[in-house]
Structure formats: structure tokens, C-alpha cells
């Protein structure tokens, strides 16, 4: 019997390696596809200003029809775009550490982080790692690998993609009510950017979506809490497959 396919879409400035621990836990039960988003890893950035549509179109070829699509952070916005515009590709949608309908204050905060990255890319990468990992049990080696991945980005490409992350929740918001597949929204209790409030907003905006808040966790659930994230995914997907 063919195993169901799970597609894992990473966050801004990262690459498929973000999912290494999750992939190792899923591979016995699923065919796991973890592509790099355009402008990340080995994949070139599309020409001109990057849009959410560019990122979704650039990765759609990696998503077999009827996949269980899981997006993390920026990848969650990409996954939502696929669910809205390419529904034949998406059997279920899981949004991990996703933003949703930022308030003016939340929008100002992310635009300030974008401005810091424009002025000092290395300092921005270091600040991101502190924001994501300080106070967690993630090892210094794993935190260092994340920072090294961020620093390997072409700064102009990173900024272009980060601008999508900072603004595209407003773009995708009107389409969320049209998502017809079973959906799950997951974030960490202590995530300072993709907050539990945002996850509840997302669950309210998408029909047939439920929210899960992981106690004591921050933003980087695929690295910080892979086992708990996989438990959420397998319970959700298994319930839908056998419903």
C-alpha cells in the first residue's frame, strides 16, 4: 500500500534541513517531501520583487496532488496560498507557527525587524536566533546551525522573501474562508511573533480548522519540539484519513 505524502514547507531564511528531526520521525509512515522554497537553499530567487504567489507557484511542482501540506512560518502562508488557489494539491492543511491578520502593532513589530535586517543582516540573524531559542532546551549546536543557515542567504533575496512574510498575511486573509480541506493550526505557547492569539484567529478564519497550543514552546517547533509536533500531525492526519 502506498504511504500518504506529507509536504513540509520551511520558514523564511531557512531551508529543508529545518525539518530534519520531523522527517526522521515521519518517514516510516509517510512519504516525506521537504523542498526548498524559491530563494532558499539551492533554489534561485524568482526575478523581480518576490510575491507570495511566486513562492507558492515555485514550490507547487513539488507537491503531489492530494498531499498533506504542512507549512512553518512563511511556509504556512505558502501552504495556505496553495490550499486557496491549488486545492487539488492539498488533502489537509497544517499551519505551524503561522501569522494571521496581524494587528497594527504586530505589523509595526515585524516591519521593525525587517528594517533591522536591511541595516545589518548579520545582527538580524543573531537576533532571530535569540528570539527563537533563548530559554529553550535547544542545544547550542542546533542554534548555531540555524544561524549559519540564515547567514548563507543572499541578503537581497532574504529581504525580498522576508517582506512577503511581513505583509502577505493581509493578502491571504480574504481567501482563508474558502479553504475547504480539514485544517490544523499549531503554535508555541511562548512564541512572541506567531502568537497563540494569531493561531486562534487562523482557526476561526478557516472552516474546519482547530488550534493546538504547545505548552512552554517558542517559535521553532520543528527544531525545539519535533516529537510533539509530529504527534499533533499524525493524530490530525490519521483522524482525517480514517474519518
Can you put this structure into words, describing what you see?
With 243 residues, the protein is of the alpha/beta class. It has a single domain (5-241), classed as Rossmann fold (3-Layer(aba) Sandwich), CATH 3.40.50. The chain is 48% helix and 14% strand. The protein is built from ten helices and six strands; from the N terminus they run βαβαβαβααααβαβαα. It has a six-stranded parallel sheet, with helices on both faces. β3, α3 and β4 (90-96) form a beta-alpha-beta unit. It is globular and about 50 Å long. It starts with a strand and ends with a helix.
Features:
10 helices; 6-stranded parallel β-sheet; 243 residues; Rossmann fold; alpha/beta
> Helix-strand pattern, N to C?
EHEHEHEHHHHEHEHH
> What percentage of the residues does DSSP assign to strands (E)?
5-15%
Strands, total number = 6
Radius of gyration: 16 Å
Structural class by secondary-structure content: alpha/beta
CATH class: Alpha Beta
Low-confidence stretches: none
Oligomer: single chain
Q: How many domain modules? A: 1
Walk across the major sheet and give the strand order: 2-1-3-4-5-6
CATH architecture descriptor: 3-Layer(aba) Sandwich
Helix content: 40-55%
In the CATH hierarchy, the third-tier topology is known as Rossmann fold
Amino acid at each position: 500500500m502506498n504511504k500518504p505524502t506529507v509536504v513540509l514547507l520551511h520558514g523564511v531564511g531557512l531551508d529543508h534541513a529545518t525539518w530534519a528531526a520531523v522527517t526522521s520521525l515521519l518517514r516510516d509512515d509517510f512519504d516525506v517531501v521537504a523542498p526548498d522554497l524559491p530563494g532558499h537553499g539551492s533554489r534561485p530567487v524568482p526575478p523581480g520583487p518576490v510575491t507570495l504567489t511566486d513562492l507558492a507557484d515555485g514550490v507547487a511542482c513539488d507537491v503531489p496532488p492530494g498531499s498533506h501540506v504542512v507549512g512553518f512560518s512563511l511556509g504556512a502562508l505558502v501552504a495556505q496560498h496553495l490550499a486557496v488557489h491549488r486545492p487539488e494539491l492539498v488533502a489537509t492543511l497544517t499551519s505551524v507557527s503561522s501569522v494571521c491578520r496581524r494587528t497594527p502593532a504586530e505589523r509595526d513589530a515585524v516591519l521593525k525587524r525587517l528594517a533591522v535586517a536591511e541595516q545589518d543582516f548579520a545582527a538580524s540573524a543573531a537576533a532571530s536566533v535569540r528570539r527563537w531559542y533563548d530559554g529553550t532546551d535547544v542545544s547550542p549546536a542546533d542554534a548555531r546551525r540555524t544561524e549559519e543557515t540564515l547567514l548563507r542567504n543572499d541578503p537581497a533575496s532574504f529581504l525580498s522573501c522576508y517582506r512577503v512574510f511581513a505583509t502577505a498575511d493581509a493578502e491571504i486573509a480574504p481567501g482563508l474562508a474558502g479553504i475547504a480541506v480539514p485544517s490544523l493550526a499549531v503554535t508555541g505557547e511562548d512564541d512572541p511573533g506567531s502568537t497563540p492569539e494569531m493561531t486562534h484567529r487562523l482557526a476561526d478564519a478557516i472552516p474546519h480548522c482547530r488550534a493546538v497550543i504547545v505548552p512552554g514552546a517558542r517559535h521553532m517547533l520543528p527544531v525545539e519540539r519535533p516529537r510533539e509536533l509530529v504527534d499533533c500531525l499524525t493524530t490530525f492526519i490519521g483522524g482525517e484519513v480514517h474519518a
